Amino acid sequence: MKDYIEERAVEIAKYIIAEKATVRQTARVFGVSKSTVHKDVTERLPKINPLIAGKVKEVLEKNKAERHIRGGKATKMKYKALANSER
């Protein structure tokens, strides 16, 4: 069982790096919870492969810094769609 978890953590990390994916996107692709993705890349991965863990951390920090922008765009699109549907 432990091997599976370690393999999953590395695969998740590779996906996040390659796709510049968010935790939410990654969880959806791998069929696990956001908590599992976060635990894999912040707790398990540094023990397995510190080099990859550092790269994942950079991507996640960038995503975190930009999330308010994505949220604003989503809200704008929501209200734009509502306005169009009322016409």
Order of helices and strands: HHHH
**Major sheet characteristics:** none
Low-confidence stretches: none
Percent in strands: under 5%
Radius of gyration: 16 Å
Q: How many strands?
A: 0
Structural class: mainly alpha
The rough form would be described as elongated
Helix content: over 70%
Number of domains: 1
InterPro entries: Spore_III_D, Tscrpt_reg_HTH_DeoR_CS
GO molecular function: DNA binding; DNA-binding transcription factor activity
Protein name: Sporulation transcriptional regulator SpoIIID
Pfam family, one: SpoIIID
Architecture blueprint of SSEs:
Blueprint: H1 2-19, H2 23-30, H3 34-48, H4 50-86
Helix pairs in contact: 1-3, 1-4, 2-3, 3-4
Organism: Thermohalobacter berrensis
Protein name: Sporulation transcriptional regulator SpoIIID
InterPro entries: Spore_III_D, Tscrpt_reg_HTH_DeoR_CS
